[in-house]
Predict the structure.
Amino acid sequence: MEEAVTFKSGDLNISGVVHIPDDLAAGESRPAIIVLHGFGSRKNAGNVTGPAAMFCRWGYVVLRFDMRGCGDSDGLFGHLLCLDQVEDTRSALTFLQSRPEVDSDRIGLVGSSFGAAVAVYTGGVDDRVRAVISSGGWGNGERKFRGQHPTPEMWDAFTKMLAEGKKHREETGEPLFVDRYAIVPIPEHLRNNMPSGSVQQFTADTAQGMMDFTAEDVIGNIAPNPVLLLHSSVDSVTPTEQSVEMFKRAGQPTDLHLTADTDHFMMAESNTRVINIIQDWLVKYFPVNVTTDA
């Protein structure tokens, strides 16, 4: 069963969908998973709905939602600050804890790319997060951007855009909007993976916020709760070293899986190798244990 929901994050209304397993009985509560979408994406993207349905089939209650400034949620469209998305994720945790079908002490986060960075950071600052799965994520914004803009010319254009954005805001009080690919270049052959309705213009403030975001600084705080880091060894969007460096800084238990037969969008339903890794890891570290009312 899917239920459209709205919850508050600060003063903003956040639009979401809760998936409830078909075999959930009256009085049962299950562990829950929150699936976080990628950069400027939305809750209805295929690489969100697919994993959400998969986790629900495996017995978890699942929440997917639009971050502020994305999809159907409140907020300035295209103005995405990492710490605001962390706040939205923590608000999602609070919302799920109020649901009777959810075991409030067993909620995990799953994110792809931008959502993966937010998942790791949230897990590092909020001990209500009991498991984190990061797919193609990043832990250091500046290093990530240097890897995504590798030539001197590309780096100069990127930093010039940041400076222009800062100047524009100082002079006008308004944000400067820039093309998404000026922030995060994506090869032409992967752009058809972008879901319909994705944000195409972002504020330069978004890029600066990503530049300053360092999830790797807090990943060690997640332990002793488990972390699974997934990354393509040939990722053409987010440098692979981002997950490798997070693994170095993480506590235990943390697993790192690098796969050569995938690219950035790893959690497609057809990728049985990645799906099997996730399922085996969940069985070991975050299994579906049903609890019932006394």
Notes: The radius of gyration is 18 Å.
